[in-house]
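re: that chain from earlier
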Amino acid sequence: MDTVERLFYEYQNMEKEIKLLRSQLEHFVGITENEMLDTMVYGQSDEPKVKTSKNPYRSEVIALSYKEETERANQELYQYLSHRYCRLNQELHFFELAVRQLPDDLAAFVTDLVMVSESWDNLMVKYHISRSTISRWKQKAIKELRLIYTIRNKQLEEFLLS
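^ sequence. v structure.
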């Protein structure tokens, strides 16, 4: 399944994820110090293990480093969420732009099918077409969108090679 087909099937889920990520970033809490302490105390140590004795300094190491570890983990988490949000947002924005480049009837059809998530029965009534026509229009739209994505990829390739 290529990018265009994936977007046809995953568009709604991607929109939901973007909303969730936006909310997580706007109200970022991160990992609490207590959660980090629990992880450090009950998690596995990176230090080599000796079967016959315990590390007498483990508590001291945890006590000295948990704040820095919490801050570092929160920075990494925020960066991950932010990067994921930007990537998904750009991907959906380009897809929506590409759909608007389709001929008018096809653009409206893809908008209803993918973005509004209309059922095939509703599309049949709205566009006065059969199920087989819906399937043909969908394949035609996918073909047209692949051409647009090919142009974008070629532009990126030319930029990277220049």
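The chain has a mean pLDDT of 87.
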